[in-house]
Specification:
The protein is 40% helix and 11% strand. It has 644 residues and is α/β, with parallel strands linked by helices.
């Protein structure tokens, strides 16, 4: 069946070769090799019942009985033939859907009663696909039609037989689970659709790497979107659009409209805003100092915001939001059926302007699906634990210690040609919250195990900047700091529906002549604003798509932030938090006056002009997001349909 699925993949590529022009033999082999991972997972799913029936330690005479063998063989033929047919259908249908069929298909067409007619018409129209499929099915049946011929192997050693067969079953179950997950190790998340991006140069090529049974199975674990149709299309665009028009110049003081500024983005693992003393002078009756003395000192010369929010609560939510302006709604983006969409990102946009781009993550390559997403959103290079190539600095759990990896990060950037855009995702401030033995008693332990790790990573940042300041690229660089999500929160101000999403968003340029911080308290901001802000700052002059605003150069006076607090949508203004279940307003809080969110003002404020404006914005934001996900409209396309 692995051979059969590979033949289907080659046939799929041949039929649709015009969709994938200029694919080299080497890259085709890379996609075929990557496809084996997804075939293995799909086939283990499809054949799980057959495997159990063949491996159960039943009496030998039962297992080798011809009637039993014939009955069991149907549990092999039926699922695998359905898998072949599913692949054959997508060989044709992918030209119209732009992606392998997922469970979203059944939601989109649940009210159509002519699908069977379309199917049979297509069988005739695309007769060559039908012929290939029928021949392959006949070959599979013919090659597997014979029953087991072994008889009476263990008649004299039945106790040994049962023990041996039970061990074989246990070992087989173990390796089947590993195969379904997609690999060994604590770092391996179950392989999903977005992992196919690791083997492609363009998102559309994931259709070659994937197989349809896998796409159906994995997408059944995520929620397919339904367009809520709150507004007609023209009204929708007037209320909110994620399309940003071409910006001809940067508005930051003393910045010329010249695209040559380096960009460095730090995604700090679990760096909740609560941990940073700069933001929390009022906590603990004014005695709170936090655990980040270096970041506190840098913030004195940075642009930051009093209300800055993450899009989600997991690491896999962060990269799409921060680097591509795609927040999480419902399931994490990279786990949805739409994770193979074309996307724009800071890296892909700046690639067109001659930038070198690279993503850094000290964990084993492929961990968390970061390598796949980095490739899909345009990073030209990836540096992980493999590229670091020194396991003596491995923490034994998640990756290379932050201090050593951030030094590697700085040194590598010194070898890159300017201008460059890079991003790094730190790892140490993650459970089990350990620091190198030499620092066992160096950093304050605080009230949570994570606090010592926060202090250590802050020190690693200090050492990074000590080195960076000696490099010629330093003064021509915009540094951006944020966190992936919050963690281990302790104060009541940070344990409610607002506080659990509060992460820093910080912009720092060493060339700025600033002696005091520009702390903007009048607008809420979020991770998704970072892409638009970076592109605005460097003077990017092409249109792009991102679900965030330019908060660095444009600084909109009237702004809302939308995020998803399962199962509710949340919309923030400069003072209000409005919660919405997709149909009705659920709660309204004035967090400026009620920081702990203890007083629901739904009955008082629901009909106010401000809340109704926030509701319309939130509905338009949700509709734009869902519609563009479903229709693969996350990029700017030219008249020929080519994405940029």
């Amino acid at each position: 069946m692995m051979v059969a699925f590979t033949l289907m993949r080659l046939f799929f590529y041949w039929v649709n070769i015009d969709i994938y022009p200029d694919v080299s033999t080497r890259h085709l082999l890379e996609m075929l090799g990557g496809g084996i991972r997804f075939d293995l997972t799909a086939l283990l799913y499809l054949n799980s019942v057959y495997l159990v029936l063949m491996l159960l330690p039943l009496p030998w005479s039962w297992r080798t009985n011809n009637k039993y063998q014939k009955a069991v063989r149907w549990f092999y033929w039926v699922p695998n033939i359905l898998g072949i047919i599913a692949n054959a259908v997508d060989t044709v249908y992918v030209r119209f859907s732009d992606r392998r069929t997922t469970m979203a298909f059944f939601s989109e067409f649940e009210n159509d009663d002519n699908l069977s007619n379309i199917f049979f018409t297509s069988m005739v129209q695309y007769w060559y696909v039908s012929v290939f499929t029928i021949v392959l099915i006949i070959a599979v049946i013919w090659l597997t039609r014979r029953a087991c011929a072994c008889r009476g192997c263990y008649t004299r050693l039945m106790p040994v037989y049962y023990v041996a067969e039970s061990l074989i079953l246990a070992v087989s179950v173990y390796f089947t689970i590993i195969g379904i997950r997609g690999g060994f190790g604590a770092f391996t998340r179950p392989i999903t659709l977005s992992n196919a991006l690791q083997y492609t140069d363009r998102p559309c090529e994931t259709n070659v790497v994937l197989n349809t049974p896998f796409a159906l199975m994995r997408s059944s674990e995520g929620k397919a979107y339904r367009n809520p149709h709150y507004f007609a299309d023209d009204e929708l665009e007037a209320i909110y659009t994620p399309v940003h028009p071409a910006n001809q110049a940067s508005l930051i003081e003393n910045r010329e409209s010249k695209i040559d500024k380096n960009v460095v983005v730090f995604i700090l693992e679990s760096f909740s805003k609560e941990n940073i003393g700069f933001y929390n002078h009022d906590l603990d009756e004014g005695t709170y100092t936090g655990y980040t003395p270096f970041l506190d000192s840098l913030l004195e010369h940075s642009v930051t915001y009093s209300l800055s929010l993450s899009s989600g609560r997991k690491s896999i939510d962060a990269m799409p939001s921060i680097l591509a302006g795609i927040p999480r709604f419902g399931s994490p983006y990279i786990l949805t059926p739409y994770s193979t969409n074309d996307v724009m990102s800071i890296a892909s946009c700046l690639n067109t302007k001659g930038y070198e781009t690279a993503f850094f993550h000290g964990a084993p390559n492929g961990s968390m699906g970061f390598m796949a997403f980095a490739r899909s959103c345009g990073f030209k290079a990836y540096y992980g634990k493999d590229e670091y190539n020194n396991d003596s600095d491995y923490d034994g759990y998640w990756g290379i210690w932050d201090e050593e990896f951030l030094q590697f990060y700085a040194r590598t950037m010194s070898t890159m040609q300017e201008p460059f855009m890079t991003a790094v995702f730190t790892v140490t401030s993650h459970h089990p919250f350990q620091v190198p033995a030499r620092y066992e008693d160096t950093f304050p332990r605080g009230t949570q195990p994570i606090h010592r790790c926060i202090g250590y990573t802050d020190y690693a940042l200090r050492r990074f900047f000590d080195y960076a300041k000696t490099q010629p690229w330093y003064t021509n660089t915009l540094f951006v700091f944020t966190a992936d999500h919050t963690n281990s929160l302790t104060h009541a101000e940070y344990t409610n529906d607002k506080g659990v999403y509060e992460v820093p968003v910080i912009f720092y340029d060493p060339s700025w002549q600033r002696s005091t911080v520009d702390l903007r308290t009048d607008i809420p901001v979020c991770q998704a604003d970072i892409m638009s802000s970076v592109l605005g700052y460097v003077g990017y002059d092409e249109p792009f798509v991102a679900f965030g605003e330019d908060i660095l150069t444009q600084r909109p006076e009237h702004k809302y932030v939308v995020n998803y607090n399962d199962p509710l949508y949340q919309c923030f203004s400069d003072s209000l938090l409005v919660q919405y279940d997709g149909q009705h307003l659920v709660h309204i809080y004035n967090f400026r006056q009620d920081r702990l969110l203890q007083h629901d003002e739904l009955d008082i404020l629901s009909d106010s002009e401000e809340v109704q404006d926030m509701l319309r914005y939130m509905q338009a934001y949700i509709q734009q997001y869902i519609a563009r996900m479903m229709e693969n409209r996350l990029v700017i396309r030219d008249y020929a349909g080519t994405s940029r």
